[in-house]
Structures are given as C-alpha cells and as structure tokens.
Design goal:
By secondary structure, this protein is α/β, with parallel strands linked by helices. Helix content is 35%, strand content 19%. Helix 2 links the parallel strand 3 and strand 4. The longest helix has 15 residues. The radius of gyration is 16 Å and the shape is globular.
C-alpha cells in the first residue's frame, strides 16, 4: 500500500512510522520541493509529489515524480498533465436532492481516458461526517468508469498516518456501497 503524507522537515519520522504500520510506499507531497534532508531507506519506496495550482501545472511538469491538484477544475484534468487529484469531496454543502461529491460521470470518463488517479483523503472524515457518503459516491464512479484510485491519510504529522490494514478496510467498505 502507498500512503500520501505532507511532511514539513519530519520525513524520517514518517519513514519510521511507515515501517511500524506496514506501509511499503510513501509519497511525500510538497508545495515546493525542498532539498533532500532525509536518508532514503531501502525497505520503503519514497515518491516525491508536488502539489501545484492549476496555473502552475505546465511550469512544474517534471519537477517531481507525481503532480497533484487539490479540487481542480475540469479543464485542468482534461489537459492530462496532472497525475493525481484529490479533495473533490471537500465541498461546502450538498444540494437539496443530491450529493455534492465533486465528481460526476463526465469527470470519471475524462480521468479514465487521461490516466489521472483519484486519491481519497481520509483526513477529511475527521472534520466532516458527510464526507463518507460523498466518498462512497465517488468510489462508485471510479469503479464504474475504471478510474484508478488510492486511499491515503494525507497526514501532516507522523502519528496521523493509518496502517495498510486500515487502508484496505476503508477501501473494502467504500467498494461495498
């Protein structure tokens, strides 16, 4: 399993916790790529991700292993430059008669066409209970249209990471819906 985390100079702590909880791949997601200040381990694969804005996508292409966009516009996804998106469920509120999950069948088709992966941000569940239903809806769309997805903690602190077993359990529960 891979987990996406947001380190701030504490990469070695994330690596240590990842060893303990059974995570074999870590993606360090940065807003700006820092100088390499940690010792890359042999037992855990480290991937560097860059969180960029829509206007900076072209400028940042090739600066990291994976380009991320949080809650992007459809136009940014259609360009196919971004590798992974997340945060579509983090909308202010639902509509009267339907969920505002942020994804629809058109988004799902475009993401499948362009090979864009969707990352489910589990940290949103702690702040908003309604996010679970939005995630279930987005998971159905990902499954139906063949969109690649990942369940990730997006932890800012090492103790906020979730184990590989917990990620698998959350994935199974979302797929059941």
């Amino acid at each position: 399993m891979i987990d996406i985390v947001l380190p701030s100079g504490n990469e070695s702590s994330f690596i240590e916790i990842a060893r303990r909880i059974g995570v074999r791949k870590l993606c360090f997601l940065y807003e700006r790529i820092p100088s390499n200040t940690y010792q890359a381990p042999k037992d855990i694969e480290i991937i560097t991700g860059l969180l960029c804005s829509e206007k900076d996508i072209h400028k940042n292409k090739g600066k990291a292993d994976v380009l991320f966009l949080k809650n992007p516009s459809r136009k940014a996804v259609e360009q196919g430059i971004v590798d992974c998106i997340y945060g579509l469920e983090d909308t202010p509120k639902d509509y009267i008669h339907q969920r505002g999950s942020g994804m629809n069948h058109i988004w799902a088709k475009i993401m499948a066409e362009k090979g864009v992966i969707y990352a489910f941000d589990i940290s949103l569940l702690k702040s908003k209970p309604v996010v679970w239903a939005r995630m279930k809806q987005n998971m159905k769309l990902c499954k139906k249209y063949g969109v690649g997805f990942r369940i990730c903690s997006f932890a800012m602190l090492p103790h906020q990471m979730i184990s590989a077993d917990q990620m698998k359990a959350i994935e199974q529960e979302l797929l059941r819906g």
